[in-house]
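Below is how a single chain appears once it has passed through the pipeline. First comes the sequence as given, then the structure the pipeline wrote out for it. We keep one example in the README because the format questions we get most often are answered faster by looking than by reading.
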Amino acid sequence: MAEALHDPNVLPDDLPAPQDDGAAQHLTGFRLPDLALAATDGAEVNLSKLKGRTVVYVYPRTGRPGQPLPTGWDAIPGARGCTPQSCGFRDHFAELKQLGVDALYGLSTQDGAYQREVAERLHLPFAILSDAELKLTRAMRLPTFTVDGMTLIKRMAWVIDDAVVSQVFYPVFPPDRSAEEIIAWLKR
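Resulting structure:
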């Protein structure tokens, strides 16, 4: 019965913190691959073509209120918190822009239709990119995990300057503080 009342906006107090397994170390200095991803605003976004500073926060999957969580979701370190992470970037969007961020995107392996519902429900002022075919995930050798037959990317965030990853935040915990962590880094 508790799962029917699932609220993705609320983080349980006892979530296990993810540990740095080294799976994202190779990403600092990584040049983004030349491939386009579908965005929730209907555009195709090729991160390798973007000029200036871009922030991408990567998350496993967003949940929907009242729908059951994937098997053992709250016990998987770093899995829970995609909605609060997205809301944090929404709430800090203007400040990120003031700090020189030219573009901001969310990224997951969920399909575009699912992501569009999330972007509308959460009133996100930026697009979410879909890597449902895992093209970017494979090209960048992103750390993943599998649950209920879904391949999901582990939570992280990148600061990208002219198509090169200049800073990687991994692991990200707690997820609702991800935007604030990037803002603190940008202010340094």
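The mean pLDDT is 94.

See the next section for the split statistics.
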